[in-house]
Amino acid sequence: MSKVIDGKAVAAAVLEECRTEVESLKADGITPGLAVVLVGEDPASQVYVGSKVRTCGDLGIYSRKIELPTETTQEELLKVVADLNADPAIHGILVQSPPPKHIDEEAVVRALDPRKDVDGFHPENVAKLALEDPTGFVPCTPAGCMRLLKEAGVETSGANAVVIGRSMIVGKPMALLLMARGVDATVTVAHSRSKDLAGICREADILVAAVGRPEMVKADWVKEGAVVIDVGINRVDDASKKRGYRLTGDVAYEECAEKASAITPVPGGVGPMTIAMLMKNTLQSARQLG
Amino acid sequence: MSKVIDGKAVAAAVLEECRTEVESLKADGITPGLAVVLVGEDPASQVYVGSKVRTCGDLGIYSRKIELPTETTQEELLKVVADLNADPAIHGILVQSPPPKHIDEEAVVRALDPRKDVDGFHPENVAKLALEDPTGFVPCTPAGCMRLLKEAGVETSGANAVVIGRSMIVGKPMALLLMARGVDATVTVAHSRSKDLAGICREADILVAAVGRPEMVKADWVKEGAVVIDVGINRVDDASKKRGYRLTGDVAYEECAEKASAITPVPGGVGPMTIAMLMKNTLQSARQLG
Q: Could you confirm whether A288 is annotated as catalytic?
């Protein structure tokens, strides 16, 4: 019998904390500001950017949406980033991923002032995460997963945590967060090359799936009573849906829910946390930059 | 029946490669240079520094030993670092650890030009390791462990690797190296808070002990046929020795050697690799800086 971890409810609680912190910042004379840069016309990116800007508005965070045409050059984009780095009204800068193919995304991330890199992808923030320096920005998705574990009352100290996936967006930062002092999990990072992935996962007290394969994690991968965090968001063809597809995670939800003591659904689990943690990072930056 | 991994022999082979590369650099008009800064009079540090300088001499690497008194201020030390950063004859800079207590070691590391940080402790090199960027410097001890695995012909892809210890000097970088693309191990980082450490270690195809507890790893922690890398160097009181102690690793060598397919001794295992990899990093820097 499993307890559903309600990402929408936890995200709402995080956003309430943010609202309070925005008031506190404003009382100190600081209006937090987030700039979101979108290059090109990817429809999914437009939805994400719209949602971020709307959430800023809800919370009283100043936001600036900068939409640039697909043919924007690397140099032009770097100039926009440099201007935002220098702008005291802006505390967080986010360049929506993925940019058009001719843009060197890594170079753009490196060009960000790391103190405004609220996505947590700049090398300086990667290092701070590894070095357990709390002044850095933690990438929003793994930060959201950690918050869900906390809200679900999961004991991490000494627990066996297994992370499937080793990306710098989720897998590696998640592993670093789980092994950090004070969290103290025993962390295994598994991936597509791992032998006996099912057997490795079956040892997990905490199982985090961030691999991008629809419903890969089956019930017999899950230990009785484990906590399952599903980071995957995959489109699967579904003729019964009007739009022709449905969204599914990396976990076969129904069957795994039978065994887990707690599990995140998709949608409504990790997804809503990402924007909430982005807001939190923006406020952290506003507080730090003052 | 286990095969002893001979760190002295592998280190000698690495140093031979270095000798060739020094000649090649000199043919290109580059004399590689390493500066070693020692603050205070710690006898062990004096031995390490002497050994590094001597190895440079053996290979034809220019070295500069800078000995500063214990009472050197942070500001004076940072000035020395700044001068070395700016000195084109110097490609690698190493400030011997530990400095006297009044020195902020982290600030000194951050003051190094990351392109000359041949210890691999600067945040920029930490990030490059996590991001799998080969232009960064990998800390010498875990780099040495990886080379030992390679020379011993150990298959890492899909192997279960367990690292005991989560320091930024050994544990975390070792984990990142083992999980990197092309190495492809399934990596578990365990530590003093881990539950059933023995059981976790028994699952390891590759077991790396970097915890600093003499002979903690016993035979029943080791799977039959596992590869055991012992990073520990501990002093244990021993009245039968003239100096009153003996050196021992984190692994109970004799009994674990019965079960391992390959194992590093202490001394003569990982230890000799550290200086060899420092030389390799210095030459990488000389090549990159040109």
A: no
Chain B residue with CA closest to A168: the answer is: B131
Average pLDDT per run of 10 along chain B, which is 290 residues long?
Answer: 90 98 98 98 95 98 98 98 98 97 97 98 98 97 98 97 97 98 98 94 98 97 98 95 95 97 97 98 97
ipTM of this predicted structure: 0.94
Q: Where are the domains of chain B?
A: 29-123, 140-271
Which residue numbers of B are catalytic? 52, 96, 119
Round to whole Å and give the CA distance between B36 and B215: 32
Q: CATH topology for B140-271?
A: Rossmann fold (3.40.50)
H-helix or E-strand spanning residue A66: strand A62-68
3-state secondary structure B174-223: HHHHHHCCCCCCEEEEECCCCCCHHHHHHCCCEEEECCCCCCCECHHHCC
pTM for this prediction: 0.96
Judged by CB atoms closer than 8 Å, whether chains meet at B193 and A160 is answered as no
State which amino acid sits at residue A202: R
For residues B284 and B17, is the Cβ–Cβ distance under 8 A? no
- The packing angle between helices A140-151 and A271-289, to 10°, is 110
Q: Report the top-level CATH class of B29-123.
A: alpha beta
